[in-house]
Amino acid sequence: MALYLLFESASGYALFHAHGIDEIGQSVDAVRSTVLDLKRFSKAVKLAGFTPFLSAVDALNQCNAISEGIMTDELRNFLELNLPKVKEGKKAKFRVGVMEPKVGSHITEATGIPCESNDYVQELLRAVRLHFDQFIDQLKPSDLEKAQLGLGHSYSRAKVKFNVNRVDNMVIQAIFLLDTLDKDVNSFSMRVREWYGWHFPELVKIVNDNYLYAKLAKFVVNKSDLSEKDIPALADLIGDEDKAKEIVEAAKASMGQDLSPVDLINVQQFAQRVMNLSEYRKNLYEYLVTKMNDIAPNLTSLIGEMVGARLISHAGSLSNLAKCPASTLQILGAEKALFRALKTRGNTPKYGLIFHSSFIGRASTKNKGRMARYLANKCSIASRIDCYSDMSSSIFGEKLREQVEERLDFYDKGVAPRKNLDVMKAAIEEGMTNTVSEEDKEKENGDTTAKKSKKKKSKSEADGDAMDLDKPANTAAAEEGTEKKKKKKKHKLEEPQDQEMAANVNGEQDETPKKKKKKNRDAAESVEPKTATEGKKKKKKSKTEADD
Q1: Residue 225 carries which DSSP code?
Q2: What's the pLDDT score for residue 391?
Q3: Ranges for the Nop domain (predicted)?
Q4: Nearest alpha-carbon partner for 292 in 398, 149, 174, 158
């Protein structure tokens, strides 16, 4: 059976016919030693076909398709043109060796061409790659190197850019930096306490917070300079006037030793550095909160920013977290305990990073495992919604949080929770109403802009009319003539109506105001009678009233 080798180079597709190689009885080591010699290899393998790529973009698209295990239309046409044709109902008398098994399986499914990928074929393809520039006469080694370099750069650049969750890397870096900052701030604040404690040891017992202690160390500097005048400033720093007075009294009777001005300056500078680090930590936390609300709003509303960010960083990305089942997500962060339990045949851990959630702490010791399993289930749902949904909203996360609260009440009080199907339906309805309201707001904004544009047009037309006053008198006279004609037509139309109204009014002069109102209504109705009989009846009524 003939063997063909499909080779994907940076410049195009190539097909080789291996006619002088017998696979039977040859080991991989023997083939590896024989294919290094170009003379022997060129006698056994010959070029059957070659098609170059049209451009660098085409080469990148073909490379992406091969890496994903997909056969493109160009590759299919190339194989059908260069391989021997197979009659219908008969098996092929050849096979194609491919480097990637996924591509080979896709080729056999789509075209029926038998493909294989084993150690023997891979060694032959390695030899083809080694001697590829010798088989094609018009291809220079320098051109092949340039094509490989350009395709490698473009492929790696595209892989770096191709990220479904574009900014989850920022969350991973931010949570790692927050952890390191917490450790650094704690160690530096302890160093400030020890350093400044030689000068003012009583301050440690009065102020427990590290940030406030660094602020006071920078403000006080020398304890002997403190007096009652500094109490308002100390009260503004601490927020408590009693503590400010206590600090001043402790400074007067302090047991600490005096420090030189140079030492005090160094302590003050170090306290300023600690303050800057703690302030930067606060800003970084705010940044992490905003990023988590943008990337994973449902997971954030369900379990919180810090725990959600730790889950994403531990999984590697939001897509990896979405692919994890709930059982894996439940014990993320407790891998050592899990493998230790499997090794010693002990009890496996019930929770990992999820333990830091407030729901696990609120559950009783009896129900902590159940609560962790239920919370992991809801976290996996929220992460999948955040990863694969186009609409970014926290409606589903809020509903899932309500479900977890109901489950806590069920464990504690026995109150039956709602069904998951009903909760999800309510969430979908709320999402639809929110989208409709947003569209209505957009329409209203569009209407207001249209009204503003109309107002601007009316103003411009008014300005144009004002400018038209300086036109010649002939046009003005012509316009006056047309207006007079219109007035005459209106006057002719209104004359019969006015005559009838006058006839009715002359017969109603001596009546009371109430009767006048009624007669006016009758007169308005009698202006245009529907039939002749109705007009005669109304005339008779008017005559009788006039005789009275």
Answers
A1: G
A2: 79
A3: 295-413
A4: 174
Distances from the Cα of 425 to the Cαs of 420, 473, 531, in angstroms?
A: 9, 74, 63
Residue-wise DSSP of 523-546: HHHTSS-SSHHHHHHHHHHHHHHH
Q: What is the pLDDT of residue 470?
A: 45
- Domain limits, the chain: 2-160, 170-284, 296-435
| Dihedrals phi, psi of 48, to nearest 5 degrees | -100, -30
Reading the block at residue 261, the tokens are 């001005």
Structural contact between residues 308 and 300, judged by C-beta atoms closer than 8 angstroms? yes
Q: Are 362 and 408 in contact (CB under 8 A)?
A: yes
How many Å apart are CA 291 and CA 170, to the nearest integer?
Answer: 8
CA distances from 546 to 342, 503, 505, 507, 533 (A): 116, 12, 11, 6, 20
| CA 59 – CA 266 distance, rounded (Å) | 62
Q: What is the pLDDT of residue 368?
A: 92
Separation of alpha carbons 508 and 495, rounded Å? 20
- The per-residue pLDDT for 442 is 62
Quote the pLDDT of residue 310.
Answer: 94
- 525 Cβ contact list (under 8 Å, min separation 6): 538
| Residues contacting 395, CB < 8 A, separation 6+ | 298, 427, 430, 431, 434
pTM above 0.70, yes or no: no
Give the dihedral sign, CA 257/262/266/272. positive
CATH architecture entry for 2-160 = 2-Layer Sandwich (3.30)
Q: Which residues pair with 16 in a beta bridge?
A: 5, 47
Task: Give mean pLDDT in consecutive 10-residue pieces for the chain, a chain of 548 residues.
Answer: 87 86 62 77 86 90 88 90 84 87 89 87 87 81 85 80 63 93 94 91 90 91 87 88 90 88 92 94 94 92 94 92 93 91 91 92 91 94 89 88 92 88 88 71 62 56 47 42 49 44 42 43 44 48 51
What fold does the segment set 296-435 form as a domain?
Serum Albumin; Chain A, Domain 1 (1.10.246)
Q: Which of 185, 146, 168 is nearest to 280 (CA)?
A: 185
Provide the 3-class DSSP secondary structure of residue 118.
Answer: coil
- Reduced to 3 states, what is the DSSP secondary structure of residue 388? helix
The tokens for 218 are 């920078």
Q: How far is CA 308 from each of CA 15, 171, 220, 349, 356, rounded to the nearest angstrom?
A: 51, 10, 41, 20, 10
User: Considering only CA atoms, which of 300, 288, 416, 427 is closest in space to residue 357?
Assistant: 300
What is the distance of C-alpha 478 from the center of its chain?
A: 67
The highest-level CATH class for domain 170-284 is mainly alpha
12 class by beta-carbon count within 10 Å (0-12 exposed, 13-18 middle, 19+ buried): buried
